[in-house]
């Protein structure tokens, strides 16, 4: 995970997304323990409250859970939840904008599909 202090996204969001990415790529499997708030704050030289805020987002979404006195763990079903969440975000951020731009340029559905296929082969 990398924290970019020049990024416009808040650090706590970067923490949450970094852990999400680690879960999606298999670095953390379901029921695996994730780094503690202290470990995150020391590793990235950030305020523990900032790290906690990022972790709290994932707890609220049911992606991770706390075992009292032990630490934070990846929740069962977290990968599926994250994929569904990210697919919806992908649609909202990329596909809708792609279609809007295609309509402005007069690009047909068939042409878009051919472009996507070309992208997969290049």
From TrEMBL:
Keywords: DNA-binding, Transcription, Transcription regulation. PANTHER family: GNTR-FAMILY TRANSCRIPTIONAL REGULATOR, HTH-TYPE TRANSCRIPTIONAL REPRESSOR YTRA. Signal peptide: none annotated. CDD domains: WHTH_GntR. InterPro entries: Tscrpt_reg_HTH_GntR (IPR000524), WH-like_DNA-bd_sf (IPR036388), WH_DNA-bd_sf (IPR036390). Residues 9-77 form the HTH gntR-type domain. This is Transcriptional regulator GntR family. It holds the Pfam family GntR. GO terms for molecular function: DNA binding; DNA-binding transcription factor activity.
